[in-house]
Amino acid sequence: MRLDKYLCDGLGVTRKQATKVIRSGEVTVDSEVQKSGAFKVPENSVVEWDGRKVGVPGPRYIMLYKPADFVCSHEDGFNQTAFVLLDEPKVENLHFAGRLDVDTTGLVLITDDGQWSHRITSPKHKCEKTYRVWLADAIEPDYVEKFAQGIELRNERDATLPAQLEIVNEAENEVLLTIVEGKYHQVKRMFAALGNKVDYLHRERIGSIVLDEALEPGDYRYLTEEEVETIWK
Ligand code: URA
User: Fold this and answer.
1) Which residues form the RNA-binding S4 domain (predicted)?
2) Which one of 9, 50, 69, 101 is the catalytic residue?
């Protein structure tokens, strides 16, 4: 990484400010003064500014319990973005590893590691996502089979990939649905294709990562190393 970028990330300063401190001779790399922002910082080097060590934060992996009425994007003209729930530096470097609709609650993963999030969102990797769904109308006896076979959605060429439906509470029209894709409004459209309607949608699981029961809506925590690793398996 270039020295000026290293300082921007590590100190949370602008490129102009980083260039200024570098030129002033206050920055050392492995104890040697470096006056060029373009200097390539070798891996595992110790970068110091005015005698204090500058650390570039490693990749970040966060689980957020998204409440309703927040959107999974950096900007929205109407609703608040879920990023306002994070008390983190450099939020602009983070992105959602798969979005939820504004009215959907539950697990969202947030990271600055594009390769990691690609493993979650790319249909090629078939990463499972489990949703708890409450339906407006009764669960028909053939639903489990229909989801397993694949459902034809409006404006889509291919049927959905086989999905697993588990009936949790028939009287309350409550099911658990596991899908391996992430088409636009997929869960709502799957039930709409069967003539039903989703009243309430909540994501509980992505791959092996389960929404932490200790989190309240709006809370977040960093993933453990083990949780991060499961996505590569
Ligand atoms: N499917 C939907 O329809 N909405 C979501 O928020 C997630 C999956």
Assistant:
1) 1-63
2) 101
CATH superfamily of 128-206: Alpha-L RNA-binding motif (3.30.70.1560)
- Give the pLDDT of residue 9: 84
Mean pLDDT of 78-85: 95
CA distance 195 to 207: 29
Q: What is the pLDDT of residues 96-105, one digit of tens each?
A: 999 999 999 9
Domain 58-122+216-233 has CATH 3.30.70.370: no
pLDDT band at 57 (very low <50, low <70, confident <90, very high): low
- Listing DSSP states for 144-176 in one string gives HHHHHH--PPTT-SSPPPP-EEEEEETTTTEEE
Q: What pLDDT, in 10s, does the model give residues 46-56?
A: 899 988 888 76
CATH architecture of the domain 3-54 equals Roll (3.10)
Compute the distance from residue 230 Cα to the ligand 1 centre, in Å: 23
CA–CA separation, 136 vs 69, rounded Å?
Answer: 20
Atom 4 of ligand 1, residue of closest alpha carbon:
185
pTM: 0.81
Which residue has 């003064």 as its token pair? 33
CB-defined site of ligand 1, < 6 Å = 100-101, 104, 185-188, 201
Q: Rounded distance, CA 190 to CA 180, Å?
A: 13
The pair of structure tokens assigned to 222 is 């960093």
Q: Which two tokens stand for residue 189?
A: 């459209």
SS3 for 3?
helix
